[in-house]
Fold this sequence. Notes:
It is a single chain. The chain is α+β, with helices and mostly antiparallel strands. It has two domains: 8-74, no CATH class; 81-182, no CATH class. The chain is 31% helix and 28% strand. It has helices at 8-15, 26-32, 76-82, 97-117, 145-158, and strands spanning 39-42, 48-50, 53-55, 70-73, 88-93, 123-131, 135-142, 163-169, 176-182. The strands form two sheets. The chain has a five-stranded mixed β-sheet, covered by helices on one side. The chain has a four-stranded mixed β-sheet with strand order 3-2-1-4, with no helix packed on it. The chain is extended and about 70 Å long.
Amino acid sequence: MSQYYPRQKELNEVRGHFKPRGPKSKKIEQEYGPGKADVLVCKTCKAFYWYKSWHHNLADYPELNQKKRIKFTVCPACQMIKSNKYEGEIRIYKAPSGIKKGIKDLIRNYGKRAFKDDPMDRVISVEDVTLRGQGKFMRIRTTENQLAKRLAKKISEVYRGKFELSISHSKKEDTARATLTFKEK
């Protein structure tokens, strides 16, 4: 039987030498910045930040009994709403007025459920818009691009086959745009 010679990787693991995790991508650092050591509270929506994420309540905080500094600030979602920025946009073209009310109710309920799961997921606005060259359409803006994609897919799923769905991503920004066009018979 031949003698076993461990590979270099296995030798490093045995000695306790692991390669350090690579640096964070520039995109993550720009969007969120480094993690904060304090507990942050949003002045607007009363969300709490700890362990590099935002939460709805402080009761789940494991170090609640310890003395920690608390700072009052504005969360990223509230900042986006205040500065009229968005990461997700859905445009719905040629939707009949009978379906529009149902779509608005679906958007409102889906937005509430998304906010309940994550305080940074919000539907910013639902509005009817008229633009030259594009006509009338319903525009929905969200704070997260993934929320816009999920919501567009949900609308398409609920109104089975009545809408043609297309999703595009911006190369310059972190914005997702979904277009739903009502199929006329």
